[in-house]
Specification:
By secondary structure, this protein is an alpha/beta fold. It has 14 helices and five strands.
């Protein structure tokens, strides 16, 4: 249901647009507005009409929202691909307003399922595969070269795979551009990626170790709360296992400064910096139960298979 699919399936598009705008207003003003030092608003686009998408991006930017969700592969949803000029009004509006386009893993409504009876662990382990395909698709499309100020985030995509990916796309470009017709001008594909794509990770020690093969100004840490892939409630301790030897300035970029700059988000304008430390925040939540418990009272478990995905999604 990413990127406004629910509204897009509504036959009455006038009603759908009204509902979508009402949701975006509530999300930005009531939900995020209640805790402006905690939440970064993310709007939903009316994906069925690129001109309306552009209008909504500009409307929400006036409300201070500089992030919008979109599909990692719109062609899988029955829409034109990244390679089509169909989306140009949307890309242009995002570039003009400094709105980051967030492509979440799984937002094409397709997942890397090897077999119906494969353990669910296989699906979870392969989640980054979709975003790797998305990165290649986007990078070799005209989008990032046509709109050089546009920024796209690969949400929850991880970073450990990126050094080899960058090596590979440069190799492909050098060896095949003569017959594929690709033209990156005076740049390499890896340079375009580093400059214009924002990368995000939850728990990626290998990626942090190889961070100097990335553009550090575009790397952001996340904790994925409240999903089961999250490192919450021990996110700071887990993060410090691989950030402990990283210079303070780089830690600051990865943990908050990059996100603040990219999403035009300044929590310290609302809440003093000294009240935003792990220690200070935890001191305010000593009455909150953050213990982990099984959902079943008896603690019994049975294997979850890929075929169970539909049942889980319908809950």
């Amino acid at each position: 249901q990413f990127c406004g699919q629910l509204f897009a399936r509504t036959e009455d598009k006038e009603l759908a647009l009204d509902m979508l705008r009402a949701y975006n207003d509530w999300h930005a003003e009531s939900w995020c507005g209640a805790y402006p030092g905690r939440f970064i608003p993310l709007s939903i686009p009316p994906i069925w009409d690129p001109a309306l998408m552009a209008d909504e991006v500009r409307r929400m930017a006036k409300k201070g929202c500089h992030a919008v969700t979109f599909s990692e592969n719109p062609s899988k949803l029955g829409w034109p691909s990244f390679h089509s000029p169909h989306w140009d009004p949307f890309w242009a509006a995002c570039a003009d307003e400094g709105t980051v386009v967030c492509l979440h893993i799984g937002s094409s409504s397709t997942l890397a399922i090897t077999a119906p009876d494969a353990p669910f662990d296989v699906l979870i382990a392969l989640q980054p595969v979709n975003i790797i395909q998305c990165a290649a698709d986007l990078l070799f499309s005209p989008v990032l070269r046509k709109y050089p100020t546009l920024r796209v985030a690969l949400s929850e995509g991880g970073i450990g795979w990126i050094p080899y990916f960058l090596e590979r796309v440069d190799y492909v470009y050098a060896h095949h551009k003569a017959w594929t017709g690709q033209d990156f001008g005076d740049m390499l594909p890896s340079q375009v990626f580093k400059e214009r794509i924002v990368t995000c990770f939850i728990d990626d020690a290998f990626g942090v170790e190889n961070r100097h093969h990335l553009e550090l100004d575009n790397v952001c840490w996340e904790c994925d709360y409240p999903h089961s892939d999250s490192t919450w409630p021990n996110a700071p301790e887990i993060a410090m296992k691989y950030l402990a030897g990283v210079p303070d300035g780089e830690v600051d970029k990865i943990t908050h400064e990059n996100a603040m700059r990219l999403f035009r988000f300044d929590p310290f304008s609302v809440r003093p910096r000294e009240q935003c430390t792990v220690q200070a925040l935890r001191a305010e939540a000593t009455d909150v139960d953050v213990s982990l418990r099984p959902r079943r009272a008896d603690g019994a478990r049975k294997p979850t298979l890929a075929a169970d995905l539909g049942k889980l999604a319908s809950r």
